[in-house]
Amino acid sequence: MMEKRKPSCEEVIAQGPPCDGTFVDVSRYRMCRAWDLIKRGEEKELGVAMKRASEEYKATCKKSQ
To answer: Phi and psi dihedrals of 18, rounded to 5?
Structure first.
C-alpha cells in the first residue's frame, strides 16, 4: 500500500484554504501560509503570521459556505 504523499507548501498555498479538509489539514495550511508570509516579508514573527493565516482561513471558508 502506497503512502499518500504530503503536498508541498507551494501546492498547499496554490490550492488555497482547505475549507472541506480534504486536500490538507488546516494546521498544515496555516503553517505553510505563515512561512509564505514570512518569506515574502509581509510578516516577521511566526506567531503573528500563524494568527494571520488563521484569520484568512476563517474568512475564506465562511464565504464559501
So the answer is: -85, 70
Q: Could you tell me which residues come within 8 angstroms of residue 16 by beta carbon, excluding any fewer than 6 positions away? A: 60
pLDDT tens digits, 29-58: 999 999 999 999 999 999 999 999 999 999
Look up the domain containing 42 and give its range: 25-65
Give the integer Cα–Cα distance in Å for 49 and 35: 7
How many domains in the chain? 1
Cell of 24: 490538507
7 residue type, one letter: P
pTM: 0.79
Question: Domain for residue 63, yes or no?
Answer: yes
> Has residue 18 been placed in a domain?
no
